[in-house]
Amino acid sequence: MAIDGTFAVDLSTCCQACGACCAYSANWPRFSIESDDELALIPEKLVNDRQSGMRCEGDRCAALQGEIGTATACGIYQVRPEVCRTCMPGDAECAMARRKFGLPVIAVV
């Protein structure tokens, strides 16, 4: 950690040790631009009752595996919805989710 409280993070792998966005997501893992063929690849048990997005258990996406802040993975990474593909480490949503779980905010420089 630097004197100013920041720390270096490997942005290519930091989500695998976090998972906060996926565990703070009850209102946003919605389907938007996915085709019917793409949606058919997502296991039905992971789709919400309205067929409008991912099923969540509380705020946590049902596809999220692992422990927040330690080691996580997406159970459907290869076929995850567009909203999940556009999540970026260090953006405003990332910062909000990390704060909720007591994780340090990632400062992208």
Write the layout of secondary structure elements.
Layout: H1 36-40, E1 56-57, E2 60-61, E3 64-67, E4 71-74, H2 82-85, H3 92-100
Antiparallel strand pairs: 1-2, 3-4
What would your notes on this structure say?
With 109 residues, the chain is an alpha+beta fold. The chain has one domain. 17% of the residues lie in helices and 11% in strands. The protein has 3 helices and 4 strands, in the order αββββαα. The strands form 2 sheets. Strands 1-2 form a two-stranded antiparallel sheet. Strands 3-4 form a two-stranded antiparallel ribbon. A hairpin with a 3-residue loop joins strand 3 (64-67) and strand 4. It starts with 35 loop residues before the first helix and ends in a 9-residue tail after the last helix.
Q: Which radius of gyration do the C-alpha atoms yield?
A: 15 Å
Taken together, the total number of domains comes to 1
- How far the N terminus sits from the C terminus, by CA atoms, comes to 15 Å
Q: Portion of residues in helices?
A: 10-25%
Characterize the main sheet.
2 strands, antiparallel
Strand content: 5-15%
